[in-house]
Design a protein that fits this description.
Layout: H1 11-33, H2 39-46, E1 48-54, H3 61-66, H4 69-81, E2 84-90, H5 93-101, E3 107-113, E4 123-124, E5 129-137, E6 152-156, H6 160-171, E7 176-180, H7 186-193, E8 199-204, H8 205-211, E9 219-234, H9 240-254, H10 257-265, H11 273-285, H12 287-300, H13 305-316, H14 336-341, H15 350-367, H16 376-387, H17 389-401, H18 409-415, H19 422-425, H20 436-456
Parallel strand pairs: 1-2, 1-3, 6-7, 6-8
Antiparallel strand pairs: 3-9, 4-9, 5-8, 5-9
Helix pairs in contact: 4-10, 10-18, 12-13, 12-15, 13-20, 15-16, 16-17, 16-20, 17-18
Amino acid sequence: MSRCDVSSLSPWYARMTVRLAIAILCCSTLMALRPSTTPLQRVRQRGVIDVVAIASDGVDSQKFLEQSFAGEITQLWARHLGVQIHYVWARDTAQALDLLQRHAAQMALTRLPVGDRQLPSLRISRPYMDTQLELVGQGARLPQTNDLSGATLIVRAHSPEAETAALLQEMVPQLHVKRASELARTEDLLLLADQAERRYALVDAMDFDSHHTLHPRLHIVMDLSQGLHLAWAFPGGNNSLYQQAQSFLMQEEKDGSLQRLLAVYGPQPHFDELGAIDFGHDMSERLPRLEPVFKRYAAANHLDWRMLAAIAYQESHWNSSAVSPTGVVGIMMLSASTAADLGVHDRQNAHQSIRAGSDYFRDLVDGLPAQISEPDRTWMALAAYNMGPGHLDDARRLTARLGKNPNLWADVREQLPLLGEPRWYRHLAHGYTPNSRQVLAYVSEVRRYYDTLLLAHPEYDTNTRLALR
C-alpha cells in the first residue's frame, strides 16, 4: 500500500487517525491565536534596550552622550523600563535609520528636521527638545540670505544640514556649498570655517554650543528657521514601546522633569570671547606640563583626568601659586585643614596639590549613596567639592522633604538657593550655606571646561570604544 487510505484501515485505527489530525489542527489554531510577546515585553525580559546613536564627535562619543541632555533623558527612560542601555553606533543618520528599520535595535536617537522625508516609515516620539540650525563663521551677523552670495558653506554630507544647504543654494545660486565626508566631526567643520572669512559652517545650535569655547572667533551669523527635533524613533509594526515612550515623555513634561533637566544639560551661557581665548592659551601653554600629573593621579583613583583638570582650571586656572582671599592655595585650592588631612606639606607643589585634590574628589564620589547614578553622581560630587559634603547632604534632604528626587542633580540643584534662606537653613543639620547660588555656577563652569577638554583631547577608552557598523 503506497499511500495511506483511511478506508482500508481498521475502524479503530481510522477513528484514531482522524482524532489525531483534529487534535493537531486544534493545537495549530491555538498557537496561531496565542499572542506573541511584544517588543516592550521582550526588552523587559532581556533587561537591555538597544539604542542606535550617531558617533560623530570622536572616540569619546559614548561618554559625551551620557553626560548630555539626550543621554540623561534616555537613561531615565531605561530606568523607567527597568533595563540597561546598549548603544549601537552608526556613522550618520541614514545608517542609524537603516539599522532601526532592520531591527538591529529597538529605538534610535534622532535629530531630524520637522517633516523630514525619512520619517514616515518610522514611529517618532514627541520631541523632548527642539533646537535649530545655525550658520556660524567669523564676522558680523548677516541680516539677509542674499548676503551669502559668493560665500562658501561647509556641511557634512548626507545630513539634515546638507539638505538645508541645498535649499539655501537654490535661493542664492552664487553660494558655494562644500560637503565634507559624512564621517566629519563638528570640530572638523568648525576648523574649516575658522580658517577664513566668508567661509561658514552649518551646524545645529547644541553642537555649536559644545564647541564654541574651542573657536572663540566664530559666532552665529544667521539663525535659520528650520527646526530640528530631538526625539526617539521606533520601527513600524507593534507600537508597544512607542506608546510607552509617549506616556513617559508626556509625564516627564507634565511634572516639570524635562524643564529641570534642560536647565542642567541644555545650552549653557558661553564664555565671553576673552575667557575662551585665555582658556585656549592655557590649554596650549600650561596644560602640557600638568597633563602627565593629572593623568597619574586620576588613574590612581579611577577618574577621568580631564575632569580633574577641569576642576583645577576652575579653581586656579592651573596656577600653582594661586592664593584666594579666603586663604585656599595652589592648583586645587586646598584649605590648610584639608591639606593637613590629606598629607600635603606644600600646597603650592603641583604634584601634592593634584594628588590631594584627586583623593578628595574620589572620596566625595564614593561617599554618595549607591542609588545615585552617573552623571548625577559627578555633578553632586562637584557641588560637594565646592560647598562641602555636609551642605550637599542638607540639600538632598531638603529635596526629599519637598517631594522631589534627592538622587537627581536636576532636582537637587533647584533647592540649593534655599540653603541661604533662614526659614530653611535653621532646620538643617549644617545650617547656613554661604554663596549657595554660586555652587550652580561652579558646577556649570567645570562642566563647560570638561566638555571642552573632552573635545580637545579625545582618547580611546576600553569601556567606551565605538563599534561602527
